[in-house]
User: What shape does this take?
Amino acid sequence: MRKRADSCAYWVAMPKGSEVPDATGVFETLAVVNGQPRLLNRHLARLFDGCRRLGLSAPPDSMIAARISAVAATPGAGVVKLIVTRSAAEDPDVPQWSVHAEPPRHRPPEWACDGVRIIICRTRLAVNPQLAGLKLLDRTAQVMARREWTAESIAEGLMLDGDGRLISGTMTNVYAVIDGVVCTPAIVRCGVAGVMRAALLETWQAVGQATAIRDLDPGELKAASEIFLSNALIGVWPVRALDGQAFAAGPIARAAGAWAQRALR
Assistant: This one.
């Protein structure tokens, strides 16, 4: 019997009581390796940008960094989750924030090597340039999109905005190699600007790999020589099938995956 989408073994549901979360908050999920949080500075930079743009008071960065490091050292920690929301206290300048450890989010190891099967979701992301790039607590659209498939062989779903532009996956950024250029959607209208995405773009620039951050029509993916996904927990996943169309795990995706694994060690 097939599993319900919200109980898929490789999907970590949001905690009860937060399925319709407060939009006035941001969060970060950091990979933990050997008791150390990875890509910490990049996560904090995005978090503080989100607090600034939402008008949230943020704790001092040294306080947050120290708390993250302490929580990451908890035995069994594989992920550290950091949340900042608007304070319910009488003093609005007192931020409400939390840091807690979660166990590793295990996924099939062959997904990083052999690639994943993905689909294009029907659920659309709302266009809101003022909040584009942030990792908001309101994940309603992503949760709805994730319910569009139940098969455990499907690892991810791509999402478009209201105008039909490709934006991202439900939990990943997406890349397509077109005529030798690594193309990734511009995150200027909606979507999350991933910290792994930023790191990869810097790396490609340093080694002279041609890249383009631009609007992408989902139809362009059919002609791509490679498609792959990234985030700060999984590293990089090559795509081996999109809505049934087969793709190969090519050299750019494999090199990006190797670099991401080194960054997450």
In short: Residues 23-102 form a domain with the D-amino Acid Aminotransferase; Chain A, domain 1 fold (CATH 3.30.470.10). Confidence is low (pLDDT under 50) at residues 1-22.
